[in-house]
Amino acid sequence: MHAWICDNPIGPEALTWKDVPTPEPKPGEVRIAIRAASLNFPDLLIVQNKYQMKPPLPFVPGSELSGTVDAIGDGVKHLKVGDAVAAFGGMGGFATHACIDARLVMPLPPGFAFEDAAAFICTYGTTHHALIDRAQLKAGETVLVLGAAGGVGTAAIQIAKAAGARVIAAASSDEKCATCKSLGADETINYGKANIRDELKTLTGGKGPDVVYDPVGGDLAEPVFRSIAWRGRYLVIGFAQGAIPSLPLNLALLKGASVVGVFWGEFAKREPQNNAKSLAELALWYAQGKIKPVIDSKLPMPQLKAAFERMGSRQVVGKLVMTNG
C-alpha cells in the first residue's frame, strides 16, 4: 500500500508519499480499501504539531475516509468484505488502505457516493450534534452561521434549513455569500466589508439570532455575542481564525444566553448510541436530498500537498476530497 507519512510535524511540506507494508486488522478492526478521504482543519493542525492530540511518530494523517471493507478482524460481526463504508477514524485516511476500529465505521446505504461519504461524517456529525442536540434548535428560530462557506458552515446551513430554521450565513466575500444563498441561506452577511452587528440588527429587527454557530472564533466572537437574542445559544465549534476569544461573561447574564461547547468526537465516543441515531437521521436526509456535502475540489491522493496549500489559502468552499483509483 501507499501512505502519506508524517515523521516530522512541521507542516504539510514535510509529508512523504511512501510504499509501506499493508497492515492486517486487529481484533475489532476492519481494513478499508480507501476510495476517498477528505481534509478537515484538524488534519492541518495535526501535521503542524498544533492539535490537542499529538500522535506518536511516524503517523498517517487523514481523519475521514470512505471505501470498501477488504479484511475483517476477529469479533467483527456487523460488517463483511465488500461492504461500502465511511469512517471517522482520526488517523490513516491519506493512504490507499487503513485499519479502523469497526465501531467507528458507518455502513453506506445504496446510492451514497464515496466522495460525498468521505466529506460527511465529521462535518455533518458535528453540525447535527451542535444544532439538534446541544442547541435544541426549533423550527422558526434564527441561526447565524459564521464561516458559512466552509465545510462545517455549509453543513450548518443545510441542517438548520432541514430543521425548519431561518438561516443568516456570514462569510468573508461576496462569492462565498452567493454560494451560501444557493445552499438555502435566507440572508447573508459579508463580514469582510460590513459591520456584522449592524447587519444582524437590521436582519433580525433588533432581536438578534437565537443560535450562533461559530467555527471561526477570533475577533468576530464578541460582537456577535453582543448581538445574540434573549435565551440565545452560542455554539463553540472551533477556532479557524486561530485566536481563541475571551468573552465577557456579563453578556451571558444580561442576555440570559448560553455558551455551549461542541466536541463531536468526544460525544461519539461517550454516547455511541446517540451518535448512531444522529448519523442515521443524516443518512436519511441525504437520501431525501435535504443535505449534500459541498465539494470544493477532488484531487488524486498523491496531490495531498496541493490540497493542503489550497486549504491554507482560505479560498475553499465546502470540502477538499482526495481520491484513489
Outline the structure in words:
The protein has 2 domains: 2-120 and 294-323, Quinone Oxidoreductase, Chain A, domain 1 (Alpha-Beta Complex); 123-265, Rossmann fold, CATH 3.40.50. The protein is 30% helix and 24% strand. By secondary structure, it is α/β, with parallel strands linked by helices. The strands form 3 sheets. Strands 3, 4, 5, 6, 7, 14 and 15 form a 7-stranded mixed β-sheet that branches. It has a 6-stranded parallel β-sheet with strand order 10-9-8-11-12-13, sandwiched between helices. It is globular, with a radius of gyration of 20 Å. The two termini are 13 Å apart. The mean pLDDT is 95. It has helices spanning 41-47, 114-118, 121-134, 151-162, 174-182, 196-203, 221-226, 250-255, 264-270, 272-287, 304-312, and strands at 2-5, 16-19, 29-38, 64-72, 84-88, 97-101, 105-107, 142-145, 166-171, 187-190, 211-214, 233-236, 258-261, 295-300, 319-323.
List keywords for this structure.
oxidoreductase activity, seven-stranded mixed β-sheet, Quinone Oxidoreductase, Chain A, domain 1, 325 residues, Rossmann fold, single chain, Quin_OxRdtase/zeta-crystal_CS, 2 domains, alpha/beta, ER
- Report the CATH C-level class of the largest domain: Alpha Beta
Count the DSSP helices: 11
Distance between the termini: 13 Å
| Shape call | globular
Total domain count: 2
Largest sheet, in brief, is: 7 strands, mixed
Radius of gyration based on Cα positions: 20 Å
What is the string of SSEs from the N terminus onward?
Answer: EEEHEEEEHHEHEHEHEHEHEHHEHE
The CATH architecture of the largest domain comes to Alpha-Beta Complex
The percent range for strand residues is 15-25%
CATH topology of the largest domain: Quinone Oxidoreductase, Chain A, domain 1
Low-confidence stretches: none
CATH superfamily of the largest domain: Medium-chain alcohol dehydrogenases, catalytic domain
| Helix/strand class | alpha/beta
- Give the averaged pLDDT, no decimals: 95
The helix fraction, in percent, is 25-40%
How many runs of DSSP E, i.e. beta strands?
15
Pfam family, one: ADH_zinc_N
GO molecular function: oxidoreductase activity; zinc ion binding
Protein name: NADPH:quinone oxidoreductase family protein
